[in-house]
Amino acid sequence: MVRLTPPSPHATQHTSARRRAFGVIASVAAIVMALSACGSGGTSTNAANANGANGSSSRTTLKWEASGEVTTMDSGKTYDTISGEAVGFFAEPLYRQDSNGDVTPALAKSLPKVSEDGLTVDVTLRDGLKFSDGSPLTASDVVYGVRRVVDPATGSQSAKNLNYIKNATEITAGKLPVDQLGIKAVSDTQVRFTLTSPNPYITQLLTDTLLSPVKQSFVEEKGKNYALNADSLLATGPYKLADWNGTNVNWKYVKNPNYWNAKNVHFKEIDVSVVKDAASKVNLFESGQIDGVHITGDYIKQYQGKKELVTVPSLRATNLELGISSNKNLQNLNLRKALSLAIDRKQLASAILNGEATPAVGVIPNGIAKNPENGKSIAEDWGNLAPTDKDKAKTLFKKALSELGTSSVKFRLVTSDDDQSKKIGQYLQAQLQDTLPGLTIDVASVPSSVRFEEMMSYKFDLALGGWSGTWDPTSYVQQHETSYEHNHSQWKSEELTELVNDLNTKDGTDFKLRWQHLKEANQYLIDNQVVIPLVQASNSYLVNPNLTGYVTSSLGGTIDPALAKFN
Question: Superkingdom of this entry's organism (predicted)?
């Protein structure tokens, strides 16, 4: 948990959503019953795993699951959790975080040194670092990689994540050349960051793979083909990408012999498969054909108390995103508020997600920060800003229809095509249509990469989205700021922009002021219903019980097996 008090990470030296439309809709009660009873199969054993045939310490190949298609393997362009996980196998950051949330050196050999005024951050790299082709990796490669992210020519949808670096905002806006970014190579092994303002989360922010080094000559050699397939990438991490052509749903990672910590990389190969069907995931795991899968629904209940089940608490916010700029009906505030009030988040969390989630209380996840004065959580201090009130929802919806001069409205809701996303989409469809007569919701379940593309085109009605943010709670409100790439609604507000700018600059390490501005920004987004918070989910996995040494992250609720091994 991140508190609005100065973080003090501990140092250790060696460890870091096809279109498908649903027709006739049953009542909410029927949907809940149907979706809650979807599980099948027993959980008595994982025979291959349990007897050691799938978990021998001599095994050198790990078989892993990805929950959806990768949108990009370019470490400077990743913006979704799926791609972020995929890139993390071969793109080494300066620092990693362990399962306790502690920051540990990766490419860096020690924790960063922050100047007394909080504006200068020095990072010293390990000696003898190399890219996967054996060429030297120096501080200049880090500088190039970071500059490339903010360079408008790159088109990174995550460029504004680096606004904490001096001049990044101006460079992404095309107002300054990229060489004016607050980063330089002091020597072959020393990188110096100059910040926009003191940032209490700077050590955690330096764990981002957006900051991974990139070899300039290699990028220039590959040109427009850079990162489009496995052969057009160089690795800096534990593994090299292999057998990926840019669109396939099966690929692998092979051990990188030039990795600085290669002696502690235990697998020669990691085979990855995209598996979306819940029953297929479990069957593959039970038959020993895969060592780790993400599970949902009744399967979580079936595996309760079993050693294969691993649950990772998550600070990821699951939201119903609104295409306000692309659908004039959604520009009606009463309609947006009616949609939010009509959704029973408790039922969604318990009946549909089988207790794997808690109802959202606002835009910023509960648990990421506490009031610095009294220690109260967001829920305790700010209250529940995402309540259910079906009577009020009906009243506001009728008023909205009158204001719009129509008797009905119809929206298309896009979700990813994995089982859980489909269930949530069906549930929202039933809830909203049952509660708000005159509303029609068509659900389109598509590959995650297609959903991402629709949302980033800013041309959609409703979308099931989410936000993992960073360790700085500001990232959850910054998503909806006017100029931010992932402001999917294309909401424009000088008030919100001012609040976000204050959080990113003026507030610095004034934790009391940061808390107040976070509260105001969260309240603003709810008052204007720019987005509809749904739930805050944990992630549950089935993991081969003989696998040890993997790292879990509460930020995205993920598991990283890069440095794991079989006992």
Answer: Bacteria
Provide the domain limits for residue 384. Answer: 315-537
Instruction: State the pairing for strand pair 120-124/183-187.
Output: unpaired
Alpha helix ranges (H) inside 321-410? 333-341, 345-347, 378-382, 390-404
Q: The domain spanning residue 437 has which CATH number?
A: 3.10.105.10
The verdict on residue 350 lying in a domain is yes
Distance CA 110, CA 104 (A): 8
For 202-252, write each residue's pLDDT tens digit: 999 999 999 999 999 999 999 999 999 999 999 999 999 999 999 899 999
How far apart are the C-alpha atoms of 40 and 229, rounded to whole Å?
A: 37
Residue 323 lies inside a defined structural domain of this protein: yes
* Total number of domains in the chain: 1
Backbone φ/ψ region at 367: left (φ over 0), alpha (ψ -120 to 50), beta? left
C-alpha separations of 274 from 229, 252, 262, 403, 513 in Å? 17, 12, 27, 46, 44
Sign of the alpha-carbon dihedral angle for 147, 153, 159, 160: positive
Helices (H), 37-77: 47-50
- Assigned token pair, 310: 């691993």
Spatial separation of the C-alpha atoms in residues 237 and 243, rounded to whole Å: 17
Question: CB–CB of 54/457 below 8 Å?
Answer: no
What is the spatial distance between Cα 33 and Cα 143, in angstroms, rounded to a whole number?
55
DSSP for residue 352? I
Alpha helices per DSSP H over 436-510: 448-457, 474-478, 494-504
Per-residue model confidence as pLDDT tens digits over 526-547: 999 999 999 998 889 999 999 9
Instruction: Report CA-CA distances (Å) from 288 to 47, 232, 268, 300, 429.
Output: 7, 33, 19, 18, 37
Q: For residue 458, which of 500, 492, 407, 432 has the smallest C-alpha distance?
A: 492
φ/ψ (deg, to 5) at 244: -120, 120
pLDDT in tens, 177-198: 999 999 999 999 999 999 999 9
Residue 372 within a domain: yes
Cβ density class 539-548: b for 16+ within 10 Å, e for less? bbbbbbbbbe
36-47 CB burial, b ≥16 within 10 A, e <16: beebeeebeebe
Distance CA 312, CA 289 (A): 23
Give the separation between CA 404 and CA 509, rounded to whole angstroms: 46
Domain-located, residue 341: yes
pTM (2 d.p.): 0.79
